[in-house]
């Protein structure tokens, strides 16, 4: 479960305004993503496997013909008293064995996709934990950064952060951002070094970003985030790319259907991925529950995204004035973005109830993919069964 517990409304209704959404919001969206990956992988792997078998001369029709030839040769050498029911049962078993083999091989390919995602998940967390970073003690040795380190330690004490959480600053991390990586029991919050540089002019910015990352730890959505990214890349590498190559190299002359099928799968999976990543950010914002946090979002939107210390400090000499500079994203572009814009984040801090449940569009995608995968398996099995029943041995 992810998210933070919300105060229930009267008579078991929705939580009161100003409280974080319930803990199931991100987890439910991730469940939709997992269903989409499994269903799309089953569908595309089955198509790829069919085209490979056709190219190797082992099409399912040829295998069923071989079953019929074996039956005829057996029936030709049998005596008149041979049991015809036994021959029919043997033929049905041969054809059903072909269908079972297709199902098992497709399932093995889906498990391969899941295994690749698991490897990517473990590698992503390890790589992020071993990147170049400055610890608090090392950063405190610089007199210009003492106040920033003190602010970090104060927030850790106020939020009662567990001892398993380590906070470091990354010189190469762009902008005014932070991220949290790791495994349960060992989390690492990586903050941009630019936040320490900004601290002298905007003392509320660094504590606000740190509170946001600590909210991710409390929401327990870090593993879900890493798994979401891993599933996306595993799907691209083991499902979408082989399906496209098989369609272009091994498919029939009219490959438009196969290519369109892969493109639709990628599009829907991108939407699912974006929904998970956007929801976790908005849920963490809602879980901060600090009066200065809306100002933190406005300041972060207004500040430049420079990475180098010299560039950042040079910009800060001029100061940051005016209102927050938010990105004017169109609705279509917002759908494709996997990170919510600053204006939306600021709005959802005070209006979090829209994240209570996935939208009907998200739920419809899950049902459509589940029905598609189930119907494909059912058609494959019943087609073989009809051919088996339609054969008259002898």
UniProtKB/TrEMBL annotation:
Region of interest called Disordered, as start-end residue ranges on this chain: 1-25
GO biological process: proteolysis
UniProt GO MF annotations: peptidase activity
Coiled coil, from the record: none
Keywords for the protein's UniProt record, in alphabetical order: Hydrolase, Membrane, Protease, Transmembrane, Transmembrane helix
Transmembrane segments: 30-52, 98-122, 227-249, 255-271
Name of the molecule in the record: Protease HtpX
Organism: Streptomyces chrestomyceticus JCM 4735
Taxonomic lineage: Bacteria, Bacillati, Actinomycetota, Actinomycetes, Kitasatosporales
């Amino acid at each position: 479960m992810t998210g933070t517990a919300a105060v229930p409304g009267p008579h078991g209704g929705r939580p009161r305004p100003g409280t974080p959404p319930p803990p199931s919001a991100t987890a439910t969206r991730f469940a939709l993503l997992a269903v989409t990956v499994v269903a799309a992988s089953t569908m595309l792997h089955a198509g790829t496997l069919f085209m490979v078998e056709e190219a190797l001369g082992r099409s399912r029709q040829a295998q069923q013909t071989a079953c019929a030839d074996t039956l005829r040769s057996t029936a030709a050498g049998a005596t008149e008293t041979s049991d015809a029911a036994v021959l029919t049962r043997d033929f049905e078993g041969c054809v059903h064995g072909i269908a079972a083999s297709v199902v098992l091989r497709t399932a093995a390919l889906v498990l391969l996709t899941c295994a690749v995602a698991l490897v990517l998940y473990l590698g992503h967390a390890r790589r992020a934990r071993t990147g170049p970073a400055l610890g608090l003690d090392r950063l405190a040795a610089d007199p210009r950064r003492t106040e920033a380190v003190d602010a970090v330690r104060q927030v850790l004490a106020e939020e009662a952060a567990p001892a398993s959480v380590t906070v470091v600053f990354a010189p190469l991390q762009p902008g005014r951002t932070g991220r949290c990586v790791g495994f349960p029991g060992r989390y690492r919050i990586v903050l941009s070094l630019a936040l320490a540089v900004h601290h002298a002019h905007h003392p509320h910015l660094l504590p606000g970003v740190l509170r946001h990352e600590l909210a991710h730890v409390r929401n327990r959505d870090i593993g879900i985030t890493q798994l979401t990214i891993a599933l996306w890349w595993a799907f691209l590498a083991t499902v979408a790319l082989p399906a496209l190559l098989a369609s272009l190299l091994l498919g029939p002359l009219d490959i438009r259907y196969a290519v369109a099928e892969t493109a639709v799968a990628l599009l829907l999976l991108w939407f699912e991925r974006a929904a998970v990543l956007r929801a976790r950010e908005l849920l963490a914002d809602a879980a901060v529950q600090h009066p200065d946090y809306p100002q933190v979002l406005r300041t972060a939107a207004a500040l430049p995204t420079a990475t180098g210390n010299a560039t950042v400090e040079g910009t800060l000499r001029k100061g940051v004035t005016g209102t927050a500079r938010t990105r004017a994203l169109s609705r279509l572009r917002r759908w494709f973005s996997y990170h919510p814009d600053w204006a939306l984040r600021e709005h959802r801090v005070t209006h979090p109830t829209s994240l209570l449940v996935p939208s009907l569009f998200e739920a419809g995608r899950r049902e459509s993919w589940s029905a598609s995968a189930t119907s494909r398996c059912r058609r494959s099995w019943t087609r073989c069964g009809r051919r088996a029943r339609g054969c008259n041995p002898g």
